[in-house]
Design brief:
Shape: globular
Strand order of the largest sheet: 5-16-15-14-13-12-8-7-6
Largest sheet: 9 strands, mixed
Bound molecules: 2-phosphoglycolic acid, zinc ion
Mean pLDDT: 96
Strand content: 15-25%
Number of strands: 17
CATH superfamily of the largest domain: Enolase-like C-terminal domain
Radius of gyration: 21 Å
Length: about 425
């Protein structure tokens, strides 16, 4: 039973410049159909970006220190809307490939990767709205009933937190929870407990939070210190059997490509040194997920690590949600999980390509926020709709907690189960 054409045909596409959680400009796109369906989506923005990501188009000049998105707004309204008017929002693949054609570049640099993401996501939401379905159901069909395991970034370092820690995220993972609701409650209780403990051990400024809402103890420099603090809080809550640990090392950002070394606090490591370092962490701690352990082009190193360690190795800057790079990784045995960020690649359909490639080869799927985002909750919808077993969307701050709030609603709506951790 199809919907009548005029209900789903695009009537207008509007864009505006809005602000994200860092008070930096980003794009909001609204798609309306002739039948009155509407889809509005905000585009996220990373700070710790990979070089292989789609280009994020910014105006330059003085306004907002060059970060304005008026060119992207113009691109939506003057170059994209006239081409897409009349197309059905339910033809996501057709619209996404038309967007790609109009852009004409591999990296989205003509119209802007952010422009493509905004129009593509707003189309997705308008399609769901035209069908009177929530986005997760429209995207994933009746099989989309499972809630993902959250990887919650309790202590931040690297590019996103003003602590002395070299790794970007130190995560707790409630792999042993029974439901999403229980998982989030337990994460919150560990977060409170950790706050008390960090105040004692590192002073009250440790409670300042980073871009993803995790603590930033300024004087903490050793990842082991972060793990010990988190495990202490977990134990104090009586949740030893529920939690395991993860990191996003984001290693590209402490890699020196001339010297081919990694700078960890005051020591330099070769690739081999880093491999030993991670092996030792996995031996010592219940560390089950390591994202971007090595720089963004080291397929070989990722492959060695995947073979050597039991922990899941996640490719973020390595794969950039790009099915081709993921295929290269799969052929090389690099990594065990895809980090999925739609704006890394451009459109929803390209992200679906990467997700299906991952699923086909037994890679886990972890849907991820960006450090710059808004309270738009498409991320929560997409995580369930893509049937991802994992989500990372930070800790505190409303642009993070709104994702959790939406996931709690979805859990109620679909009587959803809770994903299993891949073993
Ligand atoms: P970003 O960081 O959103 O700033 O790129 C998140 C990550 O590296 O996973
Ligand atoms: Zn990352």
């Amino acid at each position: 039973m199809g919907l009548s054409v005029n209900r789903t045909a695009i009537e207008s596409i509007d864009a505006r410049e809005i602000l994200d959680n860092r008070l930096e400009p980003t794009l909001r796109v609204t798609v309306r159909t002739e039948g009155g369906a509407i889809g509005r989506a905000d585009v996220p923005r990373g700070r710790s970006r990979g070089v292989h990501e789609a280009v994020d188009l910014r105006d330059g000049g003085d306004r907002y220190r060059g970060m304005g998105v008026r060119t992207a707004v113009e691109n939506v309204e003057e170059r994209i809307e006239p081409e897409l008017r009349g197309h059905s929002v339910t033809d996501q693949a057709g619209i996404d490939s038309r967007l790609r054609e109009l852009d004409g570049t591999a990296d989205g640099s003509n119209l802007g990767g952010n422009t493509l993401t905004g129009v593509s996501l707003a189309t997705l939401k308008a399609g769901a709205n035209a069908h009177d379905l929530p986005v997760y159901r429209y995207l994933g069909g009746p099989a989309a009933t499972e809630l993902p395991i959250p990887l919650v970034d309790l202590i931040e370092g690297g590019e996103l937190g003003a602590s002395g820690l070299p790794f970007q995220e130190h995560q707790i993972i409630p792999t042993g929870a029974e439901s999403f609701e229980e998982a989030i409650r337990m994460c919150a209780e560990v977060y409170y407990e950790l706050g008390d403990r960090l105040t004692e051990s590192h002073g009250e400024y440790a409670l300042s939070v980073g871009d993803e809402g995790g603590y930033t103890p300024e004087t903490m420099t050793d990842p082991r210190d972060a793990f010990d603090s988190m495990l202490g809080a977990i134990e104090a809550c009586g949740y030893d059997d529920v939690f395991e640990l993860g990191i996003d090392a984001a290693a590209t950002h402490f890699y020196d490509s001339d010297e081919r070394t990694y700078q960890l606090s005051d020591k330099k490591y070769t690739r081999g040194g880093m491999l030993d370092y991670y092996a030792d962490l996995v031996d010592t701690y219940p560390l089950v997920s390591i994202e971007d352990p090595l720089e963004e082009d080291d397929f070989e190193g990722f492959s060695t690590l995947s073979e050597r360690l039991d922990a899941q190795i996640v490719g973020d800057d390595l794969f950039v949600t790009n099915a081709e790079r993921l295929r290269k990784g799969i052929d090389a045995g690099a990594g065990d999980a895809l980090l999925c960020k739609i704006n890394q690649v451009g459109t929803v359909s390209e992200a679906i390509d990467a997700v299906e490639t991952a699923r086909g080869d037994g890679y886990a799927i972890q849907v991820s926020e960006r450090s710059g985002q808004t309270a738009d909750t498409w991320l929560a919808e997409v995580a369930v709709g893509f049937r991802a077993s994992q989500i990372k969307t930070g800790t505190t701050r409303s642009e993070r907690t709104e994702q959790y709030n939406r996931l709690l609603e979805i859990e109620d709506e679909c009587g959803g189960g809770y994903a299993a951790w891949p073993r």
